[in-house]
Design a protein that fits this description.
Layout: H1 5-17, E1 19-20, H2 22-29, H3 33-45, E2 50-52, E3 55-57, H4 67-72, H5 75-88, E4 94-97, H6 101-109, E5 117-120, H7 123-130, E6 136-139, E7 143-144, E8 151-152, H8 154-160, E9 165-171, E10 174-175, E11 180-183, H9 186-197, E12 199-205, E13 217-221, E14 227-230, H10 236-244, E15 248-251
Parallel strand pairs: 4-5, 4-9, 5-6, 9-12, 12-14, 14-15
Antiparallel strand pairs: 1-3, 2-3, 7-8, 10-11, 11-13
Helix pairs in contact: 2-3, 5-6, 6-7, 8-9
């Protein structure tokens, strides 16, 4: 779903307070409890929020949102991020691109680039770029996840470690307030960690829903990346972390 401004404020309020009652949300947003319940119901169906006894909270940190829902969630923001990335990728670059709906939008934004060498464990990325003249696509071996066509496993790690590329482009499920990057699948996390190791520069793509979201498995820290592409400025605490680590922040117009 695409969140309207009221729903965005509602989601931000829940993230700040972890769990909060419908009545308190209504008071904070200056709307009726019925409006809050209606918004919460829609956002629960999109797996952005969860209703608990006595209040509203964030969904489980154990399981990610379904791939089909993530494909359309914040799609405009992801496309703006992808365009900002494509503007900075030089023709002839070598890239490692991992699993994720935002990285798939990056692939779509790169279709007119020439001379790219793309290594990926994402069959959707490979399908987007494979038909482009002058673009070489190298697909990692391993186990294919049916739900999103991502490739994971020990064979994937061994394959990726053969390469050293100009830019690693990775997506993420969660950026915690202390700069910790998290995801849901340990196998996917290991592949992303290998991409970080094998890339001369690491570019992280993340829409604002990733800030403060909960996920189970630690992947890395913001200080390990070189550029962060997002659709809105991160919270102040994260901006301080980025500044201290000399990570370039690009907010997509």
């Amino acid at each position: 779903m695409t969140l309207n401004p009221r729903q965005r404020r509602l989601l931000d309020a829940v993230r700040r307070q972890v769990t909060v009652s419908v009545e308190a949300l209504a008071q904070q947003l200056d709307v009726t409890p019925q409006t809050v319940r209606r918004d919460v119901k829609q956002m629960e169906e999109a797996q952005l929020l969860a209703r608990y006894h006595g209040g509203v909270g964030l969904p489980s940190s154990v399981e990610n949102i379904d791939y089909s829902q993530r494909q359309v969630l914040n799609i405009d923001a992801k496309r703006r991020i992808a365009a900002a990335v494509a503007e900075r990728v030089r023709p002839g670059s070598s890239l490692l691109i991992n699993i994720g709906t935002t990285t798939e939008e990056v692939a779509r934004a790169l279709v007119h680039h020439t001379g790219l060498h793309v290594v990926t464990n994402n069959l959707n990325v490979a399908a987007i770029l494979a038909g482009q003249p002058g673009c070489e696509v190298i697909v990692a071996g391993g186990v294919v996840r049916g739900r999103d066509r991502g490739i994971v496993g020990e064979a994937t790690l061994d394959f990726i470690r053969q390469f050293k590329v100009d830019i690693g482009i990775i997506g993420i499920s969660s950026i915690e307030p202390d700069g910790t990057l998290r995801d849901f699948d340990p196998r996917e996390v290991k592949v992303a960690q290998a991409i970080i190791e094998q890339s001369r520069e690491v570019w992280l793509v993340a829409d604002e829903d990733k800030f403060g979201r909960q996920a189970l498995v630690r992947l890395a820290h913001l200080s390990q990346i070189d550029k962060l592409f997002c659709d809105t400025a991160p919270p102040e605490a994260l901006r301080e972390i980025l500044k201290e680590a000399q990570v370039e922040l690009i907010v997509a117009p």
